[in-house]
């Protein structure tokens, strides 16, 4: 996987997390508390600005009450980016 592919993946993952959070009508601060992460970190995650650890991804998945792999279901996202 080259650098541009990684950047695309980070962006799609951030978009997915933001969409799931908004669908549940949670603010950034509310979801950050649920996921046990700092809200500035969540902002950067949603903007695709950070390389995520698996432990952080797992916290996010648990806060959404979903399997870790379900975070990578980008089927509902625009794939033209």
Key features of this structure:
81 residues; mainly alpha; 434 Repressor (Amino-terminal Domain); 58% helix; XRE family transcriptional regulator; Cro/C1-type_HTH; DNA-binding transcription factor activity
Q: How is this structure best described in words?
A:
By secondary structure, this protein is mainly α. The chain is built from four helices and no strands.
What is the tally of beta strands? 0
Low-confidence stretches: none
CA-based shape: globular
What is the number of helical segments per DSSP (H or I, 4+ residues)? 4
Can you tell me the number of structural domains?
1
Give the termini separation. Answer: 17 Å
Helix and strand arrangement:
Layout: H1 3-23, H2 28-35, H3 39-46, H4 54-63
Helix pairs in contact: 2-3
Q: How would you concisely characterize the structure shown here?
A:
With 81 residues, this protein is mainly alpha-helical.
């Amino acid at each position: 996987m080259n650098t541009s592919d990684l950047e695309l993946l980070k962006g799609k993952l951030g978009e997915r997390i933001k969409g799931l959070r908004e669908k549940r009508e949670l603010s950034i601060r509310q979801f950050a508390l649920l996921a046990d992460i700092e809200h500035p970190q969540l902002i950067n995650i949603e903007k695709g600005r950070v390389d995520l650890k698996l432990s952080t991804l797992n916290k996010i998945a648990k806060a959404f009450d979903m399997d870790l792999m379900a975070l990578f279901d980008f089927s509902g996202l625009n794939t033209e980016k």
